[in-house]
Structures are given as C-alpha cells and as structure tokens.
Amino acid sequence: MEAVRAFDLKVADGLQWDRIFFGLKALLTGTGSRKTALEKSDFGSMNSVPQIWLPKREARALRQSLANITPQSAKPQAQSPLFAVLPSEVRNLIFEYAICQRIDPDPHESPPETQNARCRPHHERHPVIHTALLRTCRLVYTETRTLPLRSATHHVYGDQSLSYNSDDWDHFLFHMSSQSGKNLHHLHSTSRRLPDFTKHLQLHLQWRKITWTILASNWDFEDEWETPKFSYAEKISPKLNGILFPNTCREVNLELEVLRKNPTHRRALRAISDKSREIQLTRRDGSKIELDEEYCMEYTWEGQIWQPGDWEHGHGAYVGATYHTIRLCWRAREPEREYMHHDHWDCLRSEKIKRIPSGYDSEKEEDA
After folding, report:
1. How far is C-alpha 41 from the chain's CA centre?
2. Residue 2 has pLDDT above 80, yes or no
C-alpha cells in the first residue's frame, strides 16, 4: 500500500474490493466448474492471497462487475499526482514496472529448478506477477487490468513427472473467459513427445506468440548411436501446415532438440527442420505467417539429463549434458515491440545460449 499512500489515492470507490479481488482469478480463468478457487496461477504468484471458494454464479457476477468498471464510473482522483500531474505515458511505465510478469529475484522464494524440462536457459527461476495495485481504486484498475495477461508467458509441460499440467489433465486455460482470452500473450509448451498442436488453440485463446519445444528424449532411438527413426518428427510439418492460428498471432516458434554428442542425430534433426522451413502458417482469416530467417537460429546450451543408475550405484542422478537445438521462427512482418512491449521476461533469450554460426556443416564434425 506504499504506492497508494505515495500517490494519495482514494481507495475502494464504494466497491467491496477485498471480495472482488478474491474473485479476480474467476475473471482471469472463467472457470466452468461448480466452484472457483483463487490460488497461485500458472503464470505467476498472486501475492498473499488466501484460497477462497466461490460458487459458479457468484464468480460470474464478480467477472461481470469487474468488466463493467470504466473510467467514467471511477472517481477522477484529482488529488493524486499520479493522475493529476503525470502524463499517461509515464504513468503506464510505472504500472508496467509494478505489475508485468518478471523473474522472482528472491532465491529463497524461487530456488533454481533442477529438472531437465524446467532448467532450460532463462527458465531456472519462477516468474511472478504482483497484482496488489489493481486493488487500489477503479481508475487504477481500468488502466492496469490487462497487464497481467498481456505480459505473461503461460508454460505447459507435457510430462506428468515434471508438471501438474499433463496433457491428460484439465487446465485453467480451457475455462478462461473469452474476455480474458483476448489479452493473452505467450504460450510456451514443452514436451517429450509430439505435442497436440491444437490443444491450447481454442477459439477463445487469442495468443500473440506461441512456442513449442520438443525435448531430446522425445526422439525414437533404439540405440544411442543408431540412426534415429524420428517417427514422431516426420509428422511435425503436415500437422503444423493444417493448423489455423489465431488472427492475433504474430510469432510462432518451433524448437527441436537432441543431445549434442551424436552428429548423426544432429544431421537428422536438420533434415527435419529443413522440411519444416517450407511451410507457411495460416491464421483463421486466411492470412499467412512466413518464416523469418533472421529470427531462426541453431544453438547449444549446457544443462542436465537423468542418468539411470545400476545395482551398485543406486537409482541414478542428473548429470551434465550439452544440448543442440534448432529454433524455427515464423513471424509477422512488423516491429517486435508491437506485440512484445509488455513481455519483461522474454523467456526465449538467454546469455547461456551459444549460437552456432550460419553455414555450419555437421557433416565435417567429429563424434563428440
């Protein structure tokens, strides 16, 4: 509440803000179940919010009351320098700094991940979103209510052993209201096998950016040094070619990954990526998203992989490994800032990524 006192805001505006804030996740998720729980969401922690259950009818009423809040129904806050002195451009910068999704700087609250799928470059720490500012008054709420979703990367992990968001389980995105779905930013799906590319592309989910990362253990190897079958990978191009993407979509990334130690696997991976380069992605309105070579890249990074143990040494442990990744990027021909403006995390960029120069010839590599 320091920000409220500093800017002399008149809070509450006649609304039961505690009650409405406890129903805020009902607005964000639009759950279709009988009851709605307000708790930590998958796109960041909501600070110090108790878990409260709301009947479906009451949750719908709260969403409607929040949707009806407009600048005309709010007090002008003329006594506050935040609105009376600062121009809207400066005020928006303050709101972005306070609310947009960021990496949690507290190592105790967000210890580094050690599991393979979640310790990728720039994914070692959990993201957080601070929503307390939305509770101050109606005028602040009208100017900030879309920021949590417009800045958030929603991560979905397809392996039950790594996440509670298994492909076989329900997900809050399926129950999100259409009103909230209009403000979605980035979907990042990480899978050990060929994902269902359409699973999170329902009509009400209007993503601006989509990323699929298919991990090294997805590939169908019978033996570590055998020529890979890539039985899943051969289906990637036709499946992507048949998808209709949201009209709001501005960028689509496909990351294919193998362990670097086998050049045979890397050459097979490049053959698959070359085939995928030939397609153009299609939006629902018929417009195309073309491959952008400037944003495509091939890189390596240092991570971990599970090494099974034996009778003598126990169950196994995570050991160091070098990964080789190819990223293909289809992008609208417009400035990146137009759709990345609120993304203060930008989880696909990291100093740990070592980019491989273009023209790199794996045929000349020696077995590592």
Report:
1. 12
2. no
